[in-house]
Design brief:
This protein has one domain (about 1-75). By secondary structure, the chain is mainly beta. It has a five-stranded antiparallel β-sheet with strand order 1-2-3-4-5. It is built from one helix and seven strands, in the order βββββαββ.
Amino acid sequence: MFTVEYEEDMTIVVAMDENDRQEDVRLHFTPEGDVYMLQYVDEIEDQIIVMTYQQWKDLMACMYATEGMFKVQSNGIT
């Protein structure tokens, strides 16, 4: 289950673990093309991972790839 919220300076997507095994994962998409990935951890509050939108697209595409090196382009994966 996930939610999408639009704010003036970013879009926030929250992915929730319906079985309550893991904390929510929050994605903040900025107008500049950056993606922030956050997850609350007791010891350090929030862990933050920052990547470009292209890196995000690459990560999403890898779920469908076989072993090898690939490049995600607007017309597909090569």
